């Protein structure tokens, strides 16, 4: 038997004691293959019409050696990063709450210009190799009650990742909202308990600079005071003498203002007497 006989060979003059027979894994384009180890008797060669993203394509059958992709393909960001979310399981309607998003780069390259979005709020970050970044979002719970689904999204121009979370919103007997409008601070209070009373105080450095007693009938009440900074708004909701809820929030407004003389504001007779005495003293000093 020799390499020119058909006895112990795997093919004609190949295999056994002869040179290896051509195969679909020998790294050589032979035996009628269309490419190296593909086509002909082997598996089909990658092409621009096989429905598979291969051969350096940017998308399925587009980009690379194929025709350009119409749009940049979306790649799951979770292949390159991890996202976790922490949030309160239950909040009161109209109340502020915080959602914390943690992003970690698990890939082998930095990821730049990532936009993180929740509930219409956006923040931009960069994730270098091994980075773990925490982003806080301060949101306001929807009015009313029920279970609400929110979506946290993180994306670049080509990468995309999202994760949903469910927030349970309970009915809130007391509503307190504040905002700055020009030189004024707007304070809106309301309650779903009709004919209740809300005691409102504004404090600065533990001193009361504004005070009001508000009766809630069929709608909420808006109060305007001069804007300031580093002050505390304190409200107490009560029905008669029974206290239903207390609320206190610290604000850091952009504009400073001079505190109102609370004695003069709340007790006009005494304030006017003090003012009269002061003017009299100054007048006598100026014209003895």
Please give the structural blueprint.
Layout: E1 75-76, E2 81-86, E3 90-92, E4 96-105, E5 111-118, E6 121-127, E7 132-140, E8 146-155, E9 159-170, E10 174-181, E11 184-191, E12 196-204, E13 207-216, E14 221-226, E15 231-239, E16 242-251, H1 262-266, H2 268-286
Parallel strand pairs: 1-9, 3-9
Antiparallel strand pairs: 2-4, 4-7, 5-6, 5-8, 8-9, 10-11, 11-14, 12-13, 12-15, 15-16
Oligomer: single chain
Biggest beta-sheet profile? 6 strands, mixed
What is the assigned CATH homologous superfamily of the largest domain?
Immunoglobulins
- Judged by helices, strands and strand pairing, the structural class is mainly beta
For the secondary structure, the number of strands is: 16
Would you kindly provide a written description of the structure presented here, covering whatever features stand out?
There is one protein chain. With 288 residues, this protein is mainly β. It is 8% helix and 44% strand. The chain has two helices and 16 strands. The protein is rod-shaped, with a radius of gyration of 37 Å. The model is unreliable at 254-272 (pLDDT under 50).
């Amino acid at each position: 038997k020799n390499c020119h006989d058909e006895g112990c060979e795997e093919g004609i003059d190949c295999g056994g004691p002869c040179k290896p027979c051509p195969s679909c894994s020998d790294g050589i384009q032979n035996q009628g293959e269309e490419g190296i180890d593909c086509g002909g008797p082997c598996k089909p060669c990658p092409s621009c019409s096989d429905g598979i993203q291969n051969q350096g394509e940017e998308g399925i059958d587009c980009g690379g050696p194929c025709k350009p992709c119409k749009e940049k393909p979306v790649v799951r960001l979770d292949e390159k990063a991890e996202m976790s979310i922490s949030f309160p399981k239950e909040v009161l309607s109209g109340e502020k709450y915080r959602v914390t998003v943690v992003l970690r780069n698990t890939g082998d390259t930095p990821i730049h210009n990532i936009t993180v979005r929740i509930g219409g709020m956006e923040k931009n970050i960069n994730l270098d190799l091994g980075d773990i970044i925490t982003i806080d979002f301060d949101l306001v719970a929807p009015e009313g009650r029920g279970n609400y689904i929110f979506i946290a999204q993180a994306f670049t121009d080509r990468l995309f990742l999202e994760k949903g979370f469910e927030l349970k919103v309970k009915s809130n007997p007391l509503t307190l909202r504040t905002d700055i409008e020009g030189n004024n601070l707007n304070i809106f209070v309301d309650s779903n308990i009709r004919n209740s009373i809300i005691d409102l105080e504004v404090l600065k450095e533990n001193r009361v600079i504004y005070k009001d007693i508000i009766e809630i009938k069929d709608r909420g009440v808006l109060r305007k005071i001069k804007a300031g900074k580093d002050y505390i708004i304190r409200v107490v909701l009560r029905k008669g003498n029974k206290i239903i809820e207390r609320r206190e929030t610290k604000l850091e407004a952009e504009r400073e203002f001079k505190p109102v003389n609370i004695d003069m504001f709340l007790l006009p007779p005494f304030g006017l007497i003090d003012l009269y005495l002061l003017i009299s003293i100054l007048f006598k000093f100026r014209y003895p």
